[in-house]
Design a protein that fits this description.
With about 80 residues, the protein is an alpha+beta fold. The chain is about 25% helix and about 15% strand. The longest helix is centred in the middle third of the chain and has 13 residues, at about 25-35. About 0% of the residues are buried.
Length: about 80
């Protein structure tokens, strides 16, 4: 894991998630094609602008589905 280790500090509530994501262009393209074709339908809970990214993941704003952070302006 190229210098990445487990976090040294635990959150106050004792819950922590640690994972490493390796980019894979072929798999990402496959997922995008499945979404376009309607074979994969992600559950979207909220779409927030980049400026709201930190607050979008606070426990009081949690909801079912994925939270999407919009990086660009417009639709």
């Amino acid at each position: 894991m190229r210098g990445i280790g487990l976090p040294k500090v635990r959150p106050a509530d004792g819950r922590a998630i640690f994972f490493v994501v390796e980019p894979d262009r072929v798999r990402l393209a496959d997922l995008a094609e499945r979404v376009r074709a309607g074979r994969l339908q992600p559950v979207i809970g909220a779409v927030r602008p980049l400026a709201e990214a930190p607050s979008a993941f606070t426990p009081d704003r949690r909801m079912p589905g994925k939270t999407i952070i919009r990086v660009t302006e417009g639709d």
